Amino acid sequence: MFGPLQAVAIRRWTRIWISALIALAIGMPLPGSPFLGAAKAQEVRERRSIIDLLFRGNRPRATEKRPSIVRVRKKKRPNKINSDPAVTGAEVEVAKAPDAKKVLVIGDFMASALADGLIVAVAGDAGIVIEKSTDGSSGLVRNDHLDWPVTLKQKIETSKPSLVVIMLGSNDRQQMAVAGQKEKFHSDAWNAEYDRRITALVKVAVDGKVPFIWTGLPSFQSPSLSADAATLNSLYRAKTEMAGGVFIDIWDGFADENGKFVASGSDINGQPVRLRGSDGLSLTKAGKRKMAFYLEKDLRRLLGSTDAVADLIRLDASNLPLQDAAKQPEFTNILSVPPISLADPELDGTSGLLDTNLMPVASGKTPRDLLIDKGQTVDAPEGRVDDFRWKPASKPAG
Fold first, then answer.
1. Which of 53, 135, 276, 341 has a Cα at 20 to 30 A from 253?
2. Please, where are the H alpha helices in the chain?
3. Residues 212 and 337 grouped into a single domain
4. In this structure, are residues 137 and 145 in contact, taking their beta carbons and an 8 Å threshold?
5. In this predicted model, what pLDDT tens digit does every residue of 341-360 receive, in sequence order?
6. Number of domains into which the chain is organized
7. Residue 28's domain spans which residues?
8. DSSP single-letter state for residue 146
């Protein structure tokens, strides 16, 4: 048995050892410990867990120094400018000639987009200038807002255009006042009055002796709007062609193979681009340029521009020179031609590599053509390997 002093000493040393074990566990010396002064003099060490003590012993855990990362800000590169006029509309513009022919573009917001595309299309042509005279909210129905027949007559008298481009109808799907009454869209009275107004607008251009182009409406995102646009296009085409004008159908350029609306498609260079805006009505720069592309050939043809694309020549007998019937050559079928030496042309009796005088005049009917058209077969030349004609054996000389 221990005495009172021994029991006190045992309890004291027990507390000391327990404190030491705790200190070792947390990596810090306890107050009153003889190691406190030395610990203060040392650098504060990283805390160590019991797992470190059990499995790593007294080895200090290596502290990995991560290299400092210096982030260098990259200089912002300027955006590459796409010089393609189908995307940016940034075609090099030349100064217009004083006698440049004027093209007057009238209509609604779609005509405004068409005018923007035409301005880009003729930017490099000094002989053509585009005059944009559009009203985004106008149409043939609301003549109280803008009466286009009257307005076009005034424009022709003041501007003296060489060509008029018309594009209307996007705002005309609404009621129309006829004889003081409101008529619903596509009713019989509405159709009759709308037909009369188209005729009146076309007559202004005809009376002013100005050639005109009526551009049809494209497809729209709304199926009902697209269906009505197709119906209106048929009216515009009939009245325009009846009056001697040119109707341009641009529907296929803004629709898929089924004739339905597409927001993206190919530009004038065949590259996939966005053609229509998010609203399903407006057009992007590429869409405006593509819409103008449909008019370029007829526009330059009607203006008589030197840059106009020439019409295709008919490849029939009407373009051939007249020939004297008495001098018609005799045709023969070509079965073989004499060989021609490339090294010495004189071997075949001429000084040219291919003398047409030595070539027989052909009828154009080859053995294959005769076999297919008439079922005739041509005998192989005598002596050729496929000459299977029977020949009597020659008698030996006696």
1. 135
2. 4-26, 36-41, 50-56, 109-121, 148-159, 188-207, 223-242, 285-303, 367-373
3. no
4. yes
5. 566 555 555 665 555 565 55
6. 3
7. 4-56
8. -
